[in-house]
Each structure stands twice: as structure tokens, then as C-alpha cells.
Amino acid sequence: MSIQILSQPRNSLLKAGILLLSLAILDSFFTDFGIRNNHIQEANPLVRFIYDTSIIGFYTIKIGLPLFLLYIFTKIESKPFLHILVRFTILFYILVLILHIVWISFTL
């Protein structure tokens, strides 16, 4: 029973990491669609450079970093501040996806 109690924060962190990865995948697809169709421009200069240089590099960074973070979550001890940081990042990605939905609704 104590093992299950100890694993709950880690499971919560892993679930949040999977949600973060899912949001990052959606963001990368919507961003690529918007850039390809001249609906939006990438606001981050570094990501814009990567996108202009290599679409594969763009997807590697946008999806690879959350995947790497998810891997790290499997190797480290769950801490309350990690949960706060991941929740903040999820909230940020949700806001970005809302922006994607807004511009898509105006362009289609």
C-alpha cells in the first residue's frame, strides 16, 4: 500500500508529461500548417530559424524536447515544484492552442 501511495505523484507527473507531449504535437502540426499556408509566422526567432532550415529539425525539436522531458520524469523523483512547472507549461500550451483555434477559425 505504501508503494502505491509513493507512486501516485510520479504517475501524476508522467500523466502530465504525456499531456504536455500531446499538446506539443498538436502545436507543432498547427504551427506547420499555419506557416505553410501563410496564415501565421513563427514568433520564436530560434524556432523560426530551425523551421526555415529544416522541417524535420522543427518537428524534432518541437516533439523531441517534450519526449526527452517525459523520459527524465521516469528517472527522477517527483517533487511538488515539478508539478507546478509542468502545470504552468500545460496551461501555456493550452493558451497557444486556443490561439491556433482562433486563427484557424478566421482563415478557413
Distance between the termini: 53 Å
Which descriptor suits the 3D outline?
elongated
| Model regions low in confidence, pLDDT < 50 over at least 5 residues | 1-6
Topology order in helix (H) and strand (E) letters? HHHH
Number of strands: 0
- Give the count of helical stretches: 4
Structural class: mainly alpha
Q: Please outline the major beta sheet.
A: none
Query: What Rg is obtained from the alpha carbons, in whole angstroms?
Result: 16 Å
Strand content: under 5%
Give helix % range. over 70%
What's the overall average pLDDT, rounded? 90
Report on the architecture of this protein.
This protein is mainly α and 108 residues long. Helix content is 86%, strand content 0%. Helix 1 (2-36) runs parallel beside helix 4 and helix 2 (45-53) packs across helix 3. The protein is elongated, with a radius of gyration of 16 Å.
